[in-house]
């Protein structure tokens, strides 16, 4: 999913890509995932694994 790609980019480069395609430096201490369903929980688990592997 696009969310996972964005998290990977943020972890690897410290930047996110804006809607216009520009690279925006971003320091993030936390991430907010909206969705209290099974898909949201699965995304959070994947994000947690990505963060712990970096």
TrEMBL record:
Pfam families recorded: LamB_YcsF
Signal sequence annotation: none
Biological process, per Gene Ontology: carbohydrate metabolic process
Sequence intervals crossing the membrane: none
Annotated protein name in UniProt: LamB/YcsF family protein
Source organism per UniProt: marine sediment metagenome
